[in-house]
From TrEMBL:
Keywords associated with the record: Oxidoreductase
SUPFAM superfamilies: Isocitrate/Isopropylmalate dehydrogenase-like
Superkingdom field: Bacteria
Annotated ranges, domain Isopropylmalate dehydrogenase-like: 3-328
InterPro entries according to UniProt: IsoCit/isopropylmalate_DH_CS, IsoPropMal-DH-like_dom
The name this protein goes by in its record: Isocitrate/isopropylmalate dehydrogenase family protein
Similarity-based family: Belongs to the isocitrate and isopropylmalate dehydrogenases family.
Membrane among keywords: no
Short name of any one Pfam family annotated for the protein: Iso_dh
Length: 332
C-alpha cells in the first residue's frame, strides 16, 4: 500500500473526493489515504488555513490529491494553493487538455499538455504599494534556474511521451529582460532534444492560434501568469474546468488537484461532477507507477463520458455525483 495525503477541501470538495475514493476502492488501487484538510473548513474549526498536521503529512507522504479550496476574501489571506506551491517548490503546473468522446465542444482533435511555471513570475509575491503616490509595483521575477527547471520538465515530458513539438509562449518583444531570459533558456535546452521540434509564440498570437487551430499544439511551456490564463483557455477547448486535470509537481513532492473551485453554488447538493478530480487522481496513479490501475480507471471513465446521460447535469446527464461514480465502477 502506498500512503497518499488526501485534502478533501471546501464546498464540493468532500463530495467529489468521496466519489474518487469509492472508485479507487472498487478498482482495488493499492493506495491508503491519509486525510488532512486545509482551507476555509480548517480555518473555521482550528483557526489555520494550512494546519501543521497537513504539512507533516505532505512531508511524509510526498504525494497528495487535493480538492478545491475556498480562498477567504480579505486582507492577509494568501491563497492556500499559491502557498502550498511555494512552500514545497512545486514548480511545474501540468495541465493536459484532450478532446473527450461524448463531451460536446467546438473541436474534436485537441491534445495538448501545458507546463506552467508555478512559483515565480508575476506571482512571486513581490508586491509594493506607495500610498502617497498611489503607485503599485508587482514584480514579475524570473530566475535562470526557475526557467531551466520548467523548460526541462516540458522537454522531458515530450521525450517520454513521444511528443513531436514543444512550444514556448512569451512576450519577449516587449518584456526585454524576462522574455530574453525565458526564451534564451528555452533555446539552450531545446538543443539537447534535437528530435523534438522547438517552436515559440508570442502570447497574444498564441491565444488566437489556440482558438482557431488548437490541434497544432502538443506540449506548451510558459511563465506563471501566461500559463494561468492559457491553461483555462485550453480547458475551455475541451469542455471546461469541470473535466480537466491538474498537477503541481516539484522534485520532492507532487500535489494533484481538480482545477475548478469549490463551487459554493452547488455545494452540499451531491450533484458536482467528479471528472476533473478523478482525472487528476489518474495522473497521480501514473506518477506512482500504478499504470494498470490508471489505465483501467481511465477506460471506465471514458466509456461513461461517452454516454452523457450517465453523467452529471453539467455534462447533460441526469446522474448525481455518486450515481456517476457507480456508472464508472460498473465499467471497471
Ligand atoms: P468555481 O470553479 O468554484 O465555480 C465556477 C462555476 O463552475 C460554478 O457555477 C460551479 O457550480 C461550476 N463548477 C465548478 N466545478 C464544478 C464541478 N466539479 N461540477 C459541476 N459544476 C462545477 O469558481 P468560483 O465560483 O470562481 O470560485 C469559488 C471558490 O473556489 C472561490 O473561493 C475560489 O477562491 C476557489 N477556487 C479554488 C481553486 C482551487 O482550490 N484550485 C481554483 C479556483 C477557485
Ligand atoms: Mg487559474
Amino acid at each position: 500500500m502506498r500512503q497518499v495525503t488526501l485534502i478533501p477541501g471546501d464546498g464540493i470538495g468532500p463530495e467529489i473526493t468521496n466519489a474518487v475514493k469509492a472508485i479507487f476502492e472498487a478498482a482495488n488501487v493499492p493506495v491508503a489515504w491519509e486525510e488532512e484538510n486545509a482551507g476555509q473548513t480548517t480555518f473555521d474549526t482550528v483557526g489555520e488555513l494550512i494546519p501543521a498536521t497537513l504539512i507533516a503529512s505532505l512531508n511524509k507522504n510526498r504525494v497528495a490529491l487535493k480538492g478545491p479550496i475556498t480562498t477567504p476574501v480579505g486582507k492577509g489571506f494568501k491563497s492556500v494553493n499559491v502557498q502550498l506551491r511555494q512552500m514545497f517548490d512545486l514548480y511545474s503546473n501540468v495541465r493536459p487538455a484532450k478532446t473527450t468522446k461524448g463531451i460536446n465542444t467546438r473541436f474534436d482533435n485537441v491534445n495538448s499538455v501545458l507546463f506552467r511555471e508555478n512559483t515565480e513570475g508575476l506571482y512571486s509575491g513581490l508586491e509594493m504599494f506607495d500610498e502617497r503616490l498611489q503607485i503599485s509595483d508587482s514584480v514579475a521575477r524570473l530566475t535562470r534556474v526557475g526557467c531551466q527547471k520548467i523548460v526541462r520538465a516540458a522537454f522531458e515530458y515530450a521525450n517520454k511521451h513521444q511528443c513531436k513539438k514543444v512550444t514556448a509562449v512569451h512576450k519577449a518583444n516587449i518584456l526585454k529582460s524576462a522574455g530574453a531570459l525565458f526564451l534564451g533558456v528555452f533555446n539552450e535546452i531545446a538543443k539537447e532534444y534535437p528530435h523534438i521540434q522547438a517552436d515559440d509564440k508570442i502570447i497574444d498570437n498564441m491565444c488566437m492560434q489556440l482558438v482557431i487551430k488548437p490541434e497544432q499544439f502538443d506540449v506548451i511551456v510558459t511563465t506563471n501568469l501566461f500559463g494561468d490564463i492559457l491553461s483555462d483557455l485550453c480547458a475551455g477547448l475541451v469542455g471546461g474546468l469541470g473535466v480537466v486535470a491538474g498537477a503541481n509537481i516539484g522534485d520532492e513532492m507532487a500535489i494533484f488537484e481538480a482545477v475548478h473551485g469549490s463551487a459554493p453554488d452547488i455545494a452540499g447538493k451531491g450533484i458536482a461532477n467528479p471528472t476533473a478530480l478523478l482525472r487528476s487522481a489518474i495522473m497521480m496513479l501514473h506518477h506512482l507507477d500504478l499504470k494498470d490501475e490508471a489505465n483501467r480507471i481511465e477506460a471506465a471513465l471514458e466509456a461513461t463520458l461517452a454516454n452523457p446521460e450517465e453523467c452529471t447535469g453539467d455534462l447533460g446527464g441526469k446522474a448525481n455525483t455518486m450515481e456517476f461514480a457507480k456508472n464508472i465502477i460498473s465499467k471497471l
